[in-house]
Amino acid sequence: MDPCPFVRLTVGNLALKIPVASKPARSVVHPSSSPCFCKIKLKNFPLQTAVVPYIPPENQFPDNQFQTLAATFHLSKADIDKLAAKSIFSAKPCLKIAIYTGRRGTTCGVNSGRLLGKVSVPLDLAGTESRACVFHNGWISVGKEANKSSSAQFHLNVKAEPDPRFVFQFDGEPECSPQVFQIRGNIRQPVFTCKFSFRSTGDRNQRSRSLQSEPSSSRSWLSSFGSERERPGKERKGWSITVHDLSGSPVAAASMVTPFVASPGSDRVSRSNPGSWLILRPGDGTWKPWGRLEAWRERGSSDGLGYRFELIPDMSAAAIVLAESTLSSGKGGKFVIDLGGTSNGNGTNGRATPGSATSPACSPRSSGDFGYGLWPFSVYRGFVMSARVEGEGKCSKPSVEVSVQHVNCTEDAAAFVALAAAIDLSMDACRLFSQRLRKELCNDQDLHG
């Protein structure tokens, strides 16, 4: 499999120094007593915001400080070509940053922060698909006194690094058992097939006919992680999707192990009682759990699909949360696992859509501990994967991007494809129970009951 070129543009190591005025004006909010923030903008990409730490004027920025990310933009080859396109109306592409003192947010429609100054960093992205490039690392004078020694100083690091990915596209909705193609430029090559099925009511642990020959020991995984009890009331249960390679061998699976059940007196799946999927991979002649996806319907103005994905090291170790956020039920969005991303909530994968978000941490339970070597899945770093899904009622053919560094074999890629299918199917599983699902998602009992 040949990957597609991508570039990861990061902005980090932010800091601000402001000289102390001899007679500070009462109207000025000084950053030593109030937080600072900045707005980061790249043409054709959504605005991102980040907190800017304040350091005393006499302090130097430590050269050995760990890289702290404030914003991340992921650029495809098409994005780079667009930014580099010459026009009489556009100059060389630039990263633009506006720095503010005071708190973020608005009051009565007016921004509460006070603009301190703006910074523009020119970008020459040619060749960054194959080599890293640092566009700026150090201090820049900002504000009205930018050319004077008494000006405020803003520190930042802006760099681009190659981040090649495998890109996959479902040729239909997951419940329609589609093919999955690998995409590279204009080339579409089939690599997987999917089989959607229901576990029979007689055998709650059976996932699909294609897996009936699996060893009986594999069935214990489902009963260990799922809820096998019958539940009264409204529920959606027993969905399963198996990913096969072109030879017909099953290489990954997603099985609904906890039914999606409407909470009492409600028409929705609640966060306190989510449905869940087990993502499985073949190993030692049986299926082994790789990850667990929980999903529910958020309340309030967001009214979105809430989700949490965690890795399962083994039966005895605690699960490790890699992603937890919300997707818009109406507009869809991107499910993203990015362990070097930002937690500002304003964008994912550089292209924030309503409801999309990044995963800001890489340690157990999102503790924020960036000590990669301290946890058992330190192999997962940086961008891991993303899956684009559509909102309710729309034809969804999920597209999946997986970082090359996380794919060593066919089963690796297939596991991410199965996870993308589970996310997409969760959008339907979490629909209000007053809404009827398409016939492919209803078993005979649902259709005739």
From TrEMBL:
Record field: compositional bias (Basic and acidic residues): 227-238
Cited InterPro entries: DUF1005 (IPR010410)
Pfam families found in the cross-reference section: DUF1005 (PF06219)
Bias type Low complexity, positions: 208-226
Segments for region (Disordered): 201-239
Protein name as annotated: Formin-like protein 18
The species this protein was found in: Corchorus capsularis
